[in-house]
Design goal:
The protein has 426 residues and is an alpha/beta fold. The chain has 14 helices and 15 strands. Bound molecules: zinc ion.
Length: 426
């Protein structure tokens, strides 16, 4: 496995679906493979699509689309069917659909308090899901064994003729020790070996930062679909960001970018788990909200209660939300000046805090002195909820298949061969 993963999935962002034009020096075979990838990626992202629409969207001619689609059908990656409702007279255009129930990836997440494992079908559909608590003090490497148990449990009900194309795991950077101390951890270098040891029948496992992966999901399928410049802010035990610029994840050296929770915003503020003082997450995290509301900052379950009380008009709760939302707007204003995104998306526990305090966040942003940075800016609550992490992980896992479909998977033909070019088929 590559740890941490962090190269941008090839198809994410601008021109992701563009087929390859005829270029001197590029072989016909190469063009064919690229175009197969373009067709498969299109139906993976957009769902069932008629051949006619593929023809116009991908700029290829009708007969080429017909050949490519037939080849994907023969490989078991898509189906072709007559449309259920013919819109006009004449021969209807066949509808090409991803085989979500047969072609899938393993998507795992290790967040501050839970371990989750899903089978996600081509097309981004969650087919099956298992989860357990992550005990305080459990490292990401130690989480691999229980995750593998969840995967094995799911695999028991998988149909005989399926294609597993790969797997990915999203790992949070903030954990809690058994004594309650919050610790900042990067993706562990030995995680790759642990994954490879447990998932011997899964071709290529990749790992990445949880906020990056959830941000990727919102960019590909969620509230920021079609937006190539965005900041996704994720609240969990800590605060981190997935920053996408020009359709590409900004990952930094060894994938350690996006630690926005540790921007110092209040030099006289509280000590942070990172060793610094007055970091942004000490002002906008769950613990800050609980503290302002007069609750135990370690009592994470009470966050929803505080937000509910604020919505019901409880004054202390309302003031706690306002205070956190004001700091949220303050930090967002600074990030917006640096990155100049088209959208800021709030996910994880920040989703609910933003929703409750959106007016205060906006007011703080409106006080920014640089109107050009904010006039076009959209503030959005994340759309995919807790599934974002799993859907994003699956996008990473599908990337190789989408880049070169026939090299990765041919459904139902590998049971009699151990051809390494067809990993995972069974
Ligand atoms: Zn910090």
């Amino acid at each position: 496995m590559e740890t941490p993963v962090r190269s941008r999935p090839a198809g994410v962002g601008r021109n992701a679906e563009s087929p390859l034009p005829s270029v001197p020096g590029v072989s016909q075979e190469e063009i064919r493979r690229q175009n197969l990838g373009a067709v498969l990626r299109y139906v993976h992202l957009h769902g069932p699509t008629s051949r006619a629409e593929l023809t116009s969207r991908l700029g290829l001619n009708r007969s080429t689309i017909g050949v490519l689609s037939a080849e994907l059908v023969a490989s078991g990656l898509v189906t072709e069917e007559a449309p259920t409702t013919a819109r006009r007279a004449g021969r209807p255009s066949l509808v090409v659909s991803p085989r979500s129930d047969r072609v899938y990836a393993h998507a795992l997440s290790i967040d501050a308090g839970r371990l989750r494992a899903a089978r996600v079908g081509l097309g981004g559909r969650i087919l099956d899901l298992r989860e357990v608590d992550r005990p305080a003090g459990m490292s990401a490497v130690d989480a691999v064994r229980p995750l593998a148990d969840l995967v094995r449990d799911m695999e028991r009900s998988v149909a005989a003729e399926t294609l597993l194309v790969g797997g990915a795991v999203a790992v949070t950077d903030t954990t809690r020790d058994p004594d309650g101390k919050i610790r900042i951890a990067s993706v562990d270098e030995t995680l790759g070996a642990a994954l490879d040891a447990e998932f011997t029948d899964c071709p290529g496992f990749v790992a990445g930062d949880l906020a990056d992966i959830a941000g990727l999901a919102e960019h590909v399928r969620g509230v920021a679909a079609g937006i190539d410049d965005l900041i996704y802010l994720h609240g969990d035990l800590g605060i981190s960001a997935g920053i996408i610029v020009g359709g590409r994840l900004v990952i930094g050296h060894r994938g350690h970018s996006g630690k926005v929770g540790h921007m110092v915003v209040n030099p006289n503020g509280l000590p942070c788990g990172c060793g610094s003082r007055g970091c942004w997450e000490t002002e906008i995290g769950e613990a800050a909200l609980l503290r302002h509301a007069g609750r135990d900052p370690g009592e994470r379950e009470a966050v929803a209660e505080v937000l509910r009380a604020a919505a019901d008009g409880d004054r202390t709760a309302r003031e706690a939300v306002e205070q956190v939302a004001d700091w949220l707007g303050f930090g967002v204003a600074n990030l917006v000046n640096v990155v100049n995104p088209d959208a800021v998306v709030f996910g994880g526990s920040l989703r609910d805090i933003f929703t409750a305090g959106a007016e205060t966040v906006r007011r703080r942003l409106d006080a920014m002195p640089l109107p050009l940075s904010r006039e076009h800016l959209r503030l959005r609550a994340a759309a995919l909820g807790r599934d974002a992490v799993l859907i994003g992980a699956a996008e990473l896992a599908f990337d190789k298949l989408l880049a070169d479909p026939l090299n990765v998977g041919v459904l139902g033909q590998a049971a009699t061969t151990d051809d390494p070019a067809r990993p995972g088929a069974r």
